[in-house]
Amino acid sequence: MSDMNPVIRWFHQLGSPPYFDRFAARWAPWGYLLGAVVMAVGMYGALFQVPADYQQGDSFRILYIHVPAAWMSLLVFGLMALYSAIALIWRIKLCEILAMACAPIGAAFTFVTLATGSIWGKPMWGTWWDWDPRLTSQLVLLFLYLGVIGLYHAIDDRRTAARAAGLLALVGVVMLPIIRYSVVWWNSLHQGQTIRVFGESSMDASMMPPLVWMLVGTKLWFAGSLLARARADNLQREAGKDWVRRMAEAGK
Amino acid sequence: MSYREYVIAAYAVFALMLAWDYLAPRFAIARQLRAARRLAARKAAHPTPNKRPTELGR
Which member of A29, A41, A115, B58 has the greatest number of CB atoms within 10 A? Predict the structure, then answer.
């Protein structure tokens, strides 16, 4: 162990439940705090600094939460599937915990995507909802998240539950390209791709900075939330162990 | 601001989600620690005669 690369050693240590608990307890508040600060900067810019859109008026300000939430809904699902794959192949308990901690956060971001899209759609499209390919596929993603959460809580044994739910997460990955390319493959009411990581965005450069702040802020927030939720699950799985008792008593 | 009520509603949904996402794990952690303290108190009140550990200490 002493000859081991420090990074690899750290990964091994992180797999120890008490070590992970200390790590998550230390870093989760920082994720939340940094995420909240960065998002606050982004929201200030989105609401008070960027000019109103010449066609959509101020309703376009909704996209500063809609787009980051939509990106998170896909990214979190991908990450959940990745953790699930690692957990299924190498039986790493921490990856099971992290995969299952992703599900409620991703579901929340997916709900926000649908809700804010619907709120934007009412004045712009004249309807709260349309069975459009992008909207429908995003709704299916929400159901998949709920399926993963439901399956995880339907089975008493935590490890069996995580494996079953992880398998559903892996199967659900097929939805990610469908959502991503739904506006290209089908005739969609939803607008096409406006913002590109690689290549030129069709959004004016003056409107971009708050969006970048929000994209970064949501990721930092997610890191905090992931650690906090994983810590809660880790404690539940380790209930009755001596280190949990010692820690609980120390925190009296 | 045009469409003000729609903008407020959308940001309110986002703020509520963040509040839930912050509070839910905090409550879950507090619940687990409370349960651990209760279990420790029960064990202290009714100590088992066999003190040998049943698993490897971590």
Answer: A115
